[in-house]
Specification:
By secondary structure, the protein is an alpha/beta fold. It is 47% helix and 21% strand. The chain contains 5 helices and 5 strands; from the N terminus they run E-H-E-H-E-H-E-H-H-E. 31% of the residues are buried.
Length: 144
């Protein structure tokens, strides 16, 4: 029987540490493999396969940081994947299905009251379409 997998979808550098920590804890608890994913949302005017190192650079930094943190804090080797897509939500769900993940960990940024109510389009899409358990980390409200 294949080992279960946890997929962590990483959005930005600011959330990498908390999401990798949570995902490693979940993977350890499930005795599962951990994989990390970053999706570069590409505008319609840009071909998905365009040669553009600038477009991919932030995602590569995010995944490098994730790999380094997992190794340093949890002694865990984490395969990473950078995808380009028009919709991050669709790409995350497809990747979870393709890699056989049993659980998905992702974050949500608090942008505004409306954003909090709607949970963001990516999180909403994943929550509605992922055929697996989804854990969403929502950071605490910053006090003013």
């Amino acid at each position: 029987m294949a080992k279960s997998k946890v997929l962590v979808a990483l959005r930005d550098l600011e959330s990498v540490e908390s999401l990798i920590t949570l995902a490693c804890q979940v993977a350890n608890g499930m005795d599962a493999e951990l994989r990390a994913l970053h999706v570069v949302e590409v505008p319609l005017a840009t071909p998905l396969d365009a040669e553009d190192a600038v477009l991919d650079h932030p995602g590569r930094e995010i995944l490098d940081r994730a790999r380094e943190l997992a190794a340093r804090k949890f002694s865990r080797e984490v395969p990473v994947r950078l995808l380009r897509a028009r919709s991050a939500g669709e790409a995350i769900v497809e990747e979870a299905q393709e890699c056989g993940a049993g659980c998905l960990v992702m974050g949500h940024r608090r942008l505004s009251l409306v954003g909090e109510i709607l949970l963001g389009s990516t999180v909403q899409y994943v929550a509605r379409h992922a055929p697996i358990r989804v854990i969403v980390e929502i950071p605490p409200v910053e006090s003013s």
